[in-house]
């Protein structure tokens, strides 16, 4: 179902090497039908396969349904119909999984069917299967990375060539990276859905997209990029999912998506274009890094086809893939209580007492300063402060208060800092 950027490539690759798929699976893999909205736009689909009736297709004589439509409806209803009648499902639909994942798992479980979704996070990169299966015996503490190709493509271009925001977004759309509605990418919805999926798998806890604190890149300015460069840092949109343990041992899960400054020496800083990269920190395994093409037709089709082979193999041996694992059910921590660090760049009056007023404001909010850099220019000065770790709410209130100081002419840039010792 769906024959757009990803579906076209899935169909092409399946039809290119049917014998290979049969050999790898242990039975022939045949395309029964291809559901689209506008059949006249699809000369690549053989006429006898194409249909606009997706419901009839999933209700028909098929073993596996591959959903590459995107969005919530009609994808949700179609997949529930498929699963309830025992048909296994492969989907790349992170928006749907992040909101209705549990409902889909339950339907699959009740009918003894499979649901696989490797392509939903980080395109071609094998990431979800390692979390779901390979690391199932370990304790994961943190998952952090770049999971949206479109915004990484835009930020990389802004950093390296100074290219404008909208022209780069148009280009990402032309290359097939952007979602049908690209605000899903730039406003962080796509990355937040992926963060919800990652956090759910990593911490055996149901985390939905609404549990994820979300900030996109539309407010990232050339000033932010320049401020980062002046400190040998770069700006990336990060998804960060972590297990937070309080002093009394209480555990919770924090899941957030926001732009952050990272040192240029950090491995994520070199991840350019539509590439994605994700770090996983597990207790026994230590640090793992997953890197590759995070968007685009063929890379995503690779992950979809891997799932299709896995599901077909299960069918051949009457087996089943992993079920939902949500036994831990840790509480989700609000963003305000999540420990973060800030980089704050200010234009201030260049006169005695300015630094002490700014420092006093940090002190009032119990926020400790790590780095201060001041540079005079005429009757103004540029003042850069990088904090130590503090509760995000305390950092935010500090910035709000600083912005009101008479000696502060402008808050030029405020951004969280990641990837360096706190
Ligand atoms: P496209 O918008 O390119 O394609 C969507 C397809 O769905 C089109 O062929 C469209 O038909 C079809 N469609 C829409 N509504 C219906 C309907 N009611 N019934 C039947 N078919 C319908 O999307 P993508 O290929 O980019 O994305 C597909 C999925 O993969 C999404 O969930 C996306 O988030 C995910 N994904 C995409 C990646 C990418 O890089 N593009 C990477 C990873 C995941 P028609 O062509 O006739 O309009
Ligand atoms: N729009 C998504 C991105 C596609 O840019 O990463 C891959 O999920």
UniProtKB/TrEMBL annotation:
It comes from the Bacteria. L-homoserine binds at residue 179. Residues 343-416 form the ACT domain. Its EC number is 1.1.1.3. GO terms for molecular function: homoserine dehydrogenase activity; NADP binding. Coiled coil: none annotated. The active site is at residue 194. One of its GO terms (biological process) is threonine biosynthetic process. Keywords: Amino-acid biosynthesis, Methionine biosynthesis, NADP, Oxidoreductase, Sodium, Threonine biosynthesis. Its cofactor is a metal cation. Pathway: Amino-acid biosynthesis; L-methionine biosynthesis via de novo pathway; L-homoserine from L-aspartate: step 3/3; Amino-acid biosynthesis; L-threonine biosynthesis; L-threonine from L-aspartate: step 3/5. It catalyses: L-homoserine + NADP(+) = L-aspartate 4-semialdehyde + NADPH + H(+); L-homoserine + NAD(+) = L-aspartate 4-semialdehyde + NADH + H(+). NADP(+) binds at residues 1-8. NADPH binds at residue 94. Belongs to the homoserine dehydrogenase family. Catalyzes the conversion of L-aspartate-beta-semialdehyde (L-Asa) to L-homoserine (L-Hse), the third step in the biosynthesis of threonine and methionine from aspartate. This is Homoserine dehydrogenase. The gene is thrA.
